[in-house]
From TrEMBL:
Protein name: Protein-arginine kinase
Residues where ATP binds: 27-31, 92, 126, 177-181, 208-213
Family that this chain belongs to: Belongs to the ATP:guanido phosphotransferase family.
Keywords, in A-Z order: Allosteric enzyme, ATP-binding, Kinase, Nucleotide-binding, Transferase
EC number(s) recorded for this UniProt protein: 2.7.14.1
GO cellular component: extracellular space
Molecular function per GO: ATP binding; creatine kinase activity; protein arginine kinase activity
An example Gene Ontology biological process: phosphocreatine biosynthetic process
Regulation of its function: Appears to be allosterically activated by the binding of pArg-containing polypeptides to the pArg-binding pocket localized in the C-terminal domain of McsB.
The protein's enzyme class: transferase
Length: 354
């Protein structure tokens, strides 16, 4: 797999599959933070130490395969253009933090893009394992197996009392962040989500935007993840998160049902107006596009719109981001040029469905 192939496809191969409750849960992710026992952590490490770690990963894991995750590509962040880095962020293959600290950073990405390993981010190693829909337990099992595979050659920084040692104290313990990406339009439309977020936070979980910490929610897509990593096992953390996600799924389904029963005409008008904007606009900003895509996806999930695939909406949510638009155009674009191209791509993609 080459960098260009990662750049050209807006939607990762694993995202084309449906998973449990995939009308609401877009994806499940397990992220594991690990560090080399014999090296200073990235925040204070000398440059030559980080370079050695980067070279180690390239030598040991480039083009290697593990189970179903084939032909890992090694991608140094240094040397990537701003657009290329932004595309990798938009596809959730690297974090915004890694993109900004590129001197000795790199990533390993499996051919199907389901597994990525960020190297020399906040920690030496950040493993990311994705599954479509609501599959946290399966993601955890596979993440453990992949973690064991890496540990055959890496001596992790580990303390018998504290667990895995990490740069940030909030990751000490399991070093794990479990998260789900959820599309919650009905709870957002009815205002119920704003009342739920404080209660979710009190349970040791956090609600963030689509790109995690410091990002805003776009298109009614929210990331729900654990905050606590110390004092609980990985299984307990996943169980707690699953319990809350199941309740959110139930509340979202009920909110959708109430919207149909109590505001059916208004809801259809909202959905079809959004569809009309997407189908006929000649210029559209990213926030407006995300809002319209969210409404149309709700219409698909409710059976109101029948001629558009849910996967097309997933693809457009990424394809219409600034990095991908410029990658598609093969040049840097002004904000206005991006808005024009975004509208054109959406129109073309929707036409393919007819």
């Amino acid at each position: 797999m080459t960098l260009q192939q990662f750049m050209n496809e807006a939607i990762s191969p694993w995202m084309r599959e449906d998973g449990p409750d995939s009308d609401i849960v877009l994806s499940s992710r397990i992220r594991l933070a690990r560090n080399f026992a014999e090296a200073s952590f990235p925040l204070i490490a000398k440059q030559e130490v980080l370079e050695e770690i980067k070279v180690f990963f390239q030598k040991e894991y480039e083009h290697q395969s593990f189970q179903d995750y084939q032909d890992f590509a090694f991608v140094p962040i240094r040397g990537l253009s701003p657009v290329e880095k932004r595309v990798l962020v938009e596809k959730h293959l690297i974090s915004p933090h890694l993109a900004k600290h590129a001197e000795s950073a790199a990533t390993l990405i499996s051919e199907n893009e389901q597994v990525s390993v960020m190297i020399n981010e906040e920690d030496h190693i950040r493993i990311q394992m994705y599954f479509p829909g609501f599959q946290l337990n399966k993601a955890l099992k596979k993440a453990f197996e992949f973690d064991d595979w890496l540990e055959e050659k890496v001596n992790y920084a580990f303390d018998e009392t504290r667990g895995y040692l990490t740069s940030c104290p909030t990751n000490v313990g399991t070093g794990m962040r479990a998260s789900v990406m959820m599309h919650l339009p009905a709870l957002a439309i009815t205002g119920q989500l704003n009342r739920m977020i404080p209660a979710i936070n009190q349970l040791g979980l956090v609600v963030r935007g689509i790109y995690g910490e410091g990002s805003e929610a776009v298109g009614n897509v929210f990331q729900i993840s654990n905050q606590i990593t110390l004092g609980k096992s990985e299984e307990d953390i996943v169980e707690d998160l699953q319990s809350v996600v199941k309740q959110l799924i139930e509340h979202e389904r009920k909110a959708r049902s109430r919207l149909v029963d109590q505001s059916g005409t208004q809801l259809e008008d909202r959905i079809y107006r959004s569809y009309g904007v997407l189908e006929y606009s000649r210029i559209i900003e990213s926030m407006e596009a995300a809002k319209c895509l969210s409404n149309v996806r709700l219409g698909i999930d409710l059976g109101i719109i029948k001629n558009v695939s849910r996967h097309i909406l997933n693809e457009l949510m990424i394809l219409t981001q600034p990095g991908f638009l410029q990658q598609y155009a093969k040049k840097t674009l002004t904000a206005n040029e991006r808005d024009v191209l975004r509208a054109s791509l959406i129109r073309e993609r929707l036409q393919l469905e007819k």
